[in-house]
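--- STAGE predict ---
source: upstream dedup step, 1 unique chain passed
mode: sequence only
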Amino acid sequence: MLQEGAHGKWTVSSSDESTEENSDSEKPSTSSLLDAAHSGTGGPQYQCSEARKAALKRKASPLKFSDKKTSPGTPPAEKQRTSQGGSGWCLSSSDEEPEDLKNDTQKGTVKEEKSDEPSEQHPLNLCKDDELPEKIKEEYEEAPSEAQDTWDMLNGGNPFRFFLTKVKGIEQSYNSGALHIKDILSPLFGTLVSSAQFNYCIDIGWLVRQYPQEFRKKPLLIVHGEKRESKAELIAQARPYENISFCQAKLDIAFGTHHTKMMLLLYEEGLRVVIHTSNLIADDWYQKTQGIWISPLYPRLPQGSTGSTGESETNFKADLIRYLMAYSAPALKEWIDVIQEHDLSETRVYLLGSTPGRYQGSDKEKWGHLRLRKLLKDHASSIPAQESWPVVGQFSSIGSMGADGSKWLCSEFQESLVAAGSSVATLLKSDVPIHLVYPTVDNVRQSLEGYPAGGSLPYSLQTAQKQLWLHSYFHKWSAEISGRSHAMPHIKTYMRPSPDFKKIAWFLVTSANLSKAAWGALEKNGTQLMIRSYELGVLFLPSAFGLEKGYFHVSGKVFSGSHGSAKYFPVPYDLPPERYGSKDQPWIWNIPYTDAPDTHGNMWVPS
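--- STAGE serialize ---
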């Protein structure tokens, strides 16, 4: 299919066009491993999405930008057809064969190079060390933090136990309260007995190397959603490691993914649960904005404890067990028993999960956006003039929302986000503003990683062109408050701020992107909730932190000892979010960007 826009003409393959609309475009590639992208480079060997494959290819074979024109040509703005909905890019209805890229009269001429050297001339170079090839990058990774720093982070000054990952290439002060995976797995957190890693995209060899040497042979269970060839490849990766076993999550509904990201860490001293947003690959812990919630160290209960012993006020223990039981996997029975044997009463967050299925009756309220709705009705305080309190969603991928907002976003999903207090009448949903935070093309171009950062933002043209109405809700990514404006977000967050954005009624960090596959969609006149994917997150509510006013204040600094009080929540990006300007475009991964270079002097051609 021929497409045309500000960046010239391009083609979209028929296989791309058939992408399932209800997915969030992160389903793994079913082709063989990334040999084409990394032949001879010693790059990572793991299954990933087509968007990430494109990013890895461009890192291995960058296309250098050259500001030369073969002819004066026509300014891009004049070549465009009428813009649709102010989206900033246009779609052609022509069925003609596309011109070759080399014949396009574009500003950039394609010049493929194997060099990983940074551009010395381009003014947007943010740092040099982010140019390292994959093989060298691993040697350059973060060492664990100083022992005292990590201990202080875990045990004081952060009542929410909410952290960001370290980012290479930003001012060091912005990493002072952040964690690398090596910190999480360090002996400071406990003397490891065994662990379970739940995730979507997994590089086995890399993961093993993140464990301290003394823990690398401890039993490790990997919970994944791979099937057929990709499952065989994952198992093959683990052959050198006798301590690794697998649990395949059942994905019986088409186009679902095992998207949950969780660690269960059993120590001699107790148990810890980590719920986060990063894949288990080097790239996700390097120059992206990611979120982590780390539980307290849960002590073992006295022998003979039964029933609800060790439960928290947030019902976290029972909810976690229910989530694990939904896998119906014998391999997880041992971990369910371990959780039963520990005291989780110090937990102050609510667990919010999605598991694949078609749910009716009271089961509908146990999962997805209806679970969020019930939690907010039962435990959030009603807000004066609450119709003026907007909702904010921030994510890294987008599924199909339908022909207009009434199909899902501004109906059932919004109704869940605006729930607050059981005695409050249902609002007219259209009265509540919705702010959606998703990176622009310029956000990606000017990022630490440059255009390849867009491989983790797999919003496709095929989905975007069907929902141009959605783009009027979009806001730019900006995170000056955490020093991460140039670290593209793979974190997913949702919240309910006050009209002046100085307070929030609640905050959710989760693996769930903006998609019906992740959150669920009502069917059969609202009597059934259908969910395709596994997702997991934690919800922060003021009442669970002893706050009676029904809101947190937004902290002025994300990393600061001054917000040790539970009154101040460290929202990791800038509020209020800034709406897209007339020239801003949402990042779409499967079209070329050749009019301007990224921070490494490169262009983006995904094919």
